[in-house]
Amino acid sequence: MKPTVFLRLSRAANLPTVLSNVLVGTALAGAAPDGARLAGAMLIGALFYTAGMWANDWFDRRWDRRHRPERPLAAGEIGAGAVFAGALGMGLAAGLLAPAVAAPGRAPSAFAAAAVLAALIVAYDALHKRVPALAPPLMGACRGVLYLLPAALFGGPAPWAAAAALAAQVAGITVLAAGEHRGAPGPVWALPLLCAPLVVVFAGAGPLPWTVPAAALAAGLWTLGAWRQARRGRPGAAVGALLAGLALYDAVWLLALGRPHWALAAAAAFAAARLAQRRIAAT
Questions:
Q1: At CA 16, angle to CA 152 and CA 151, rounded to 5?
Q2: How far is CA 15 from CA 32, 102, 104, 150, 185, in A?
Q3: Contact 112, 152 (CB under 8 A)
Q4: Contact 253, 162 (CB under 8 A)
Q5: DSSP string over 36-69
Q6: Is-contact 72 57, C-beta < 8 A?
């Protein structure tokens, strides 16, 4: 398989945002894993994300031949059997890695979280074209679990409110993506969903350094600009920008949680995603 086929099939341009999601989940749980365990958690997120993208194209292969013929499987650049085997292999690897990466005594909860994430990914990929109304909540839940995964792996309180806000944000992006192949303008009501994490960041928060509202303003303006593109009938460009923008919201969270160095890593993830999107389609 050519490297370009792998990257396009994996929607690799969005992968940096998966890694920044795991950083936020770790900070929200108050966990302090060593470097190897943190890298392992990121690898689990990356494997699940990539497996989900491959499974998505396997389930959608007939639809893609009509509507997204540029995708590698639809274009005949890779066989359906290889895509199915790759998705299954990466999913199994992620599930088996979770207990190995987990802190002592956390293997059962780590395996359970991995199983839930795998089930959500399969449910989304199998149902999102058959039952379109389920696509936004299922896709949102897949991302939301990434905020919960570190608590399952390393201990600490599960950040349910933050995970719900991320799920709402990704559900809003999914609503816009549904009209991508038709060039349909995004609905007005999607905008509050896209900014949902900011509500949770500031709700009940005590004094915060100036960097938090400054980063929140940048994230909000970025979101507004992308949403306006969707309203003008350019949902494809909007969705790519919003997916990269997930890392900006991660930076806001990390600044609010007192992890400025991790916030810089999240900002770098945003930049990496936008650069990669110049060569690799985000959707």
A1: 10
A2: 23, 22, 28, 17, 26
A3: yes
A4: yes
A5: HHHHHHHHHHHHHHHHHHHHHHHHTHHHHHHH-T
A6: yes
| Alpha-carbon distance values, 93 to 87, 124, 159 (Å) | 10, 20, 25
Which amino acid, residue 235?
A: P
Residue 282 lies in a domain: no
Classify residue 72: in a domain, yes or no.
yes
The CA angle 232-60-147, to the nearest 5 degrees, is 70
CA distance 267 to 256: 14
Determine, yes or no, domain membership for 27.
yes
DSSP state of 1: -
- The structure tokens listed for 161 are 């409110």
3-class secondary structure per residue, 7-31: HHHCCHHHHHHHHHHHHHHHHHCCC
How many domains, the chain? 1
Q: What is the dihedral of CA 114, 164, 177, 17, to 10 degrees?
A: -60
**Whether the Cβ atoms of residue 256 and residue 211 lie closer than 8 Å to each other:** no
pLDDT at 234: 84
Assess if residue 281 is contained within a domain: no
Average pLDDT per 10 consecutive residues for the chain, totaling 283 residues: 93 98 97 94 98 97 93 95 97 97 96 97 96 96 98 97 98 87 74 95 84 97 93 87 98 97 98 96 89
CA 13 remoteness from chain centre? 11
Radius of gyration of the chain (CA): 18
Q: Which domain holds residue 102?
A: 3-276
Roughly how many angstroms between the first and final C-alpha of the chain, as a whole number? 20
* Residue 50 to residue 57: CA distance in whole angstroms: 11
Residue 274 identity: R
Q: How far is CA 100 from the centre of its chain?
A: 23
